[in-house]
Design goal:
heterodimer; A: 12 helices; B: 418 residues; two-stranded parallel ribbon; 2 strands; 71% helix; globular
Amino acid sequence: MSMKGTPLTKVLVYALIVLAVLFSIYPIWFAFLASIRPGQRLFSLNLAGMFIPLDITLENFRAMLFEKDFLMWAGNSLLVAGLTTIAAVTLATSGAFAFSRFRFVGREAGLILFLAVQAFPGVLSLVPVALLLYRLGLFGSQWGLVLAYTIGSLVFTTWNLKGYFDTIPMELEEAAMIDGCGPIQSFIRIALPLARPALAVTALFGFMAGWNEYVMASVLLSGQTDRYTLPIGLAQMANDIQVPWGEYAAGALMVSIPVLVLFLWLQKYLESGLTMGGVKG
Amino acid sequence: MGVTYRGLRKYLIVLFFIAPTLLGVLMLNVFPILFNVYISFTNRNTYHYQTYEPAPEERAAFVEEHPALGAFAWDVLCPVMPALCCSPDRMMVYCLREPFYDNYVRLFEELFTTSSLTAMGKLVLTIVPLIAVSIAAGQVRKRTLSPPATWWWWLVAAALGVGLWFLLDARAALELLFDTGSFFVVMFRTVLYVVACIPFFFVFGLIFALLLNNEWLRGKGIWRVLIIVPWAVPSYISALIWQFFFRTEQGTINQLLGILGVQGPSWLLNPGTAFFAVVLVNIWMSYPFFMVIILGALQAIPTEQYEAAEVDGATWFQQLFNITLPLLRPAVMPAIVLSSITTFQMFNTVWLITQGGPIQGAGVPGATEFVMVHAYKQVFQSRNDGLIGAFAVIVFIILFAATLYSMRVTRITQGAYE
């Protein structure tokens, strides 16, 4: 449904969009300005300095990359987020396949269980999860974190993928089965390639679950400084009495870039791949 | 629909595909919930926090005392439920409450007095008109082929609600309920937060989806990416930036207001403005998600519908209300349910911006101390595990019931169960 393309409407539409964009990106732009400003000040008393860069230096980026443990945190984060992505995509696909393609006793109960667990205030799971991982010998290790993140993201991704699989007609797979494929083989060959948008979204959510999470990581990795992920590392910097804001802002930008790139790359899938559990718009 | 496997073979295959996920959910989601249910029956807190490690002679004494249960019961039960085997007056060690549901009584005893129940009744009465209209509108939509416009019903109901609010002196009722303890205060503020946020998510998402959906618009991809940015930036970073914006002295917002000659308020020190701040930040973070969902749904609406409406001479707004909005419903309602849950459970952002404050007094929840923030403070700062466990169990039940109900209403699962 397009609006009428009169010049006045066009001007208004563009103006509104530009306003929304400014609202959306100004906080990030603000961090960017702080990161390239010499010194460690987050704000500028100079009015123009709040909107455009006045003095430009890359010193904060250099300090962050080579003087702090940023690269080590990034490596840890990449490992955790990468493993979470792989595990989440594998498990969500197999679970969603079963929920979508089989009818079995307990199917409905299983789907509702997945929703139910989301209703519990997650902060209170921290202690029991830590306890459990401790018993499993995974407390303080990246494996425990990967496990927690994967399961945490599975609830949404399994529902989302199942919703998408439901929209792929079974007839396609049945045709392949007539040609001699087994049900699983035909699913992998026919349905999975068609579900690429939803798989991309699953991967994105899995990655974000591992890359952006802070509270759980701070509990499960407490004290293990050489295993810190980016969120804990940066939060630790922000908790110092004398916060090096310029360096913090540089770090914050560098953390956001991989996710932004992923969003850019996957954005054509975002609209079609989010099915919100069974209803395709 | 269904796959050709039958009987045992089918179940083995299903199990093969579901078992890892199910096992994980049971371990990391269901176990913590059960653990909390158990803790909610104990007196675990700052003074009683250790699990019980019995001495050998206690085992012998237990076996002698309960020959029917025997040593086996001791060995099995004690590691799982230490509270069974220890006495309540033991220092440091936590035990089952006496009676075991005592935490729940403590949580609710003030809420179930005659005066509190009357006050609650009054509050419920003020929203009865709105509920009645929503049910009636739903029925009308279901039963008639071309539903009449019902928007004015809502206006009447809202006016009635406001009238009842003053008539019944709901404000006094609310203040009375705020004195009944943290449960009502925290739940009320959290619900208020959800109610304050969600309409903005939807309206902003809808407006910008409609704007970006214009065929003649150039650079759609770029605009869309720029608007999505807040969704992609980690919340612990954006929350800190916003926290800085809201500072009184050097905060960006007050600096900008200063240029206009306005003395900005201490945003995070006033209950009202602090609440506004966390609502604003949540809108900033969440409306791009709605925009993406709505954009996807808009593209799925067949253009023939609009062409036919165009031929009939329908205006743009008529098309919006009669074609677009009804057809967006199935895609938007699940997003609303999902966002309501995440907003209800919001922790990171609120914690980093206000820490639940501003403080309203000793032992009283702060103005933005929503459910998760309250739970965090109770567990990690006050160490009130038992009591907050009971709180969490009740929140869980309420939220789960609400989820199931809204799923039924929105039919997220339509087609999922056939």
